[in-house]
Write a structure and sequence with these properties.
alpha/beta; seven-stranded parallel sheet; two-stranded antiparallel ribbon; 6 helices; 11 strands; disordered N terminus
Length: 216
């Protein structure tokens, strides 16, 4: 568990007054992911625990993408900044120029932006985020791998499942490209495979006290 200073959450929508983060949600997506993420995130309640997202996207587009999502979601959605504390009710989108990693220090979970070499030919990389969560998180985790080409995120999702996280993949029928989720399913990384319209509900089922699609 980690305590958070509410004063570190400024601007846009105000996250709920929750001082203890008991759970973190992490999501990875690639081809087709912009629409998939909108479907998932717009159906998460305002007081959902912090959500960290890697969407394969050029750096000139991620800030605008986060802003558009913010307009359609109950949660606050923003482009992640280096060394900012994770706050409940907030979605952190990886900038297109950096890996987004989970870091822990001074009693806080934080976003860490890294210019390390691409992983699986991507920066940001889903696997880099997932592996950092395996290394740093001591709270409960829900991890989701959505539509995308290749295998980025599959190995990290397996490591998260082995760590005890609840892991979800988008099902083949609703994927634009059934690549990343397919590999994850094949290697046993997924606890459940869901249509995109049911992914938010799948997340919420693991978050006591929340109701998908309804304001809290």
């Amino acid at each position: 568990m980690s305590s958070y200073d509410a004063s570190s959450c400024q601007g846009g929508k105000t996250p709920p007054s929750v001082s203890i983060v008991r759970q973190i949600v992490v999501i990875g997506a690639s081809t087709g992911g912009t629409d998939a993420l909108k479907t998932v995130l717009s159906n998460l309640p305002a007081n959902t625990p912090p959500v960290m997202v890697v969407q394969h996207m050029p750096e000139n587009f991620t800030e605008t993408f986060a802003s558009r999502l913010n307009d359609s979601c109950q949660m606050r959605v923003k482009e992640a900044e280096h060394d900012e504390s994770l706050c409940p009710g907030t979605v952190y989108i990886a900038p297109g120029h950096s890996h987004l990693l989970l870091a822990r220090g001074a009693g806080h979970y934080r976003c860490c932006l890294s210019s390390a070499e691409p992983c699986n030919r991507h920066r940001p990389s889903v696997d880099m985020l997932f592996r950092s969560v395996v290394a740093e998180a001591s709270c409960a985790i829900v991890a989701v791998l959505l539509t995308g080409m290749g295998r980025d995120g599959a190995d990290g999702l397996l490591k998260l499942r082995q760590k005890g996280a609840w892991t979800i993949t988008q099902d083949q029928a609703s994927c634009v490209v059934y690549g990343m989720p397919r590999v994850a399913d094949q290697i046993g990384a997924s606890c459940e495979s869901l249509p995109i319209e049911e992914v938010a509900q799948g997340i919420v089922r693991r978050l006591p006290g929340l109701s998908a699609g309804n304001p809290v």
